[in-house]
Amino acid sequence: MIIRLYRDVKMTRPKTQSDEQVLETAHRLIHEHGPEALTFERLAKACGLSGATLVQRFKNKVQLKQRTLLHAWDGLDENTRKLAATVPRTPTGAVALLVALSQSYGGIESYAEGLLVLREDLRDPVLRARGAAWKAFLCDTLAACFAKTPNPPRDIGLLMASHWQGSLLWWSFDPAIEVAAYVEDSLNRFVAAITTAPARKP
Questions:
Q1: Positive or negative torsion for Cα 126, 132, 135, 141
Q2: CB–CB of 150/199 below 8 Å?
Q3: I need a labelling partner for 54 at 20 to 30 A (CA). Which of 3, 93, 95, 188 fits?
Q4: What are phi and psi for residue 145, nearest 5 degrees?
Q5: Of 9, 111, 129, nearest to 69 (Cα)?
Q6: pLDDT tens, 168-198?
Q7: Torsion, Cα of 193, 196, 197, 200 (10° steps)
């Protein structure tokens, strides 16, 4: 009976950390030390839970990594939608949205680590699908910012998002100034080129 009660207590013991908190810790480990650093042993030390508890929750390393990166996508989706709701639907608003999103990249070391995480996203079809869905929402939002611009280029949302990602890459080779400042200048010149170009045929 005592053993039975002890087992019941262990089985019903409340979690000391939610899955979301554990996944935040896992994501931090990936960004600080690379995707291969995410092991149950290392995560257990970082979050204070036992390895057995983590295995019970996340099953294996593949699922742990996928859930960690899906959690990161959840955060990016939420942040993007919140920012999109605050900017005006104008070209200036489009620039403001992308500059705000750029703040999360941090310095060059953080950006470089992020590329390793992107590699993991590209290897997993589930994570690639999340990236594609985020791209679609972002491009639609950017396109809406040019709705009142006369004769905007076709797929202006995708063009601007592509220019944004390109500006981040070029900044990374020579990060002499803050990434947000670099991106803002590059995007403003992009918008100027789009809005002052000769009228295009429909």
A1: negative
A2: yes
A3: 3
A4: -75, -15
A5: 129
A6: 999 999 999 999 999 999 999 999 998 885 5
A7: 130
Q: Where in 41-173 does DSSP place strands (E)?
A: none
Check: CB of residue 122 under 8 Å from CB of residue 168: no
The predicted model scores a pTM of 0.84
Of 16, 51, 43, 49, nearest to 27 by C-alpha is 43
pLDDT band at 106; cut points 50, 70, 90: confident
Beta strands in 10-85 (DSSP E): none
Following DSSP, what letter does each residue of 20-31 receive, concatenated? HHHHHHHHHHHH
Alpha-carbon distance of 155 to 162, in angstroms, equals 11
| 3-state DSSP assignment of residue 136 | helix
Extents of the domains making up the chain:
69-196
Q: Following CA atoms 9, 10, 14, 15 in sequence, which dihedral angle do they give, to the nearest 10 degrees? A: 170
User: Token pair of 81, please?
Assistant: 């939608």
**Longest CA–CA separation in the chain, Å:** 85
Query: May I ask the CATH class of domain 69-196?
Result: mainly alpha
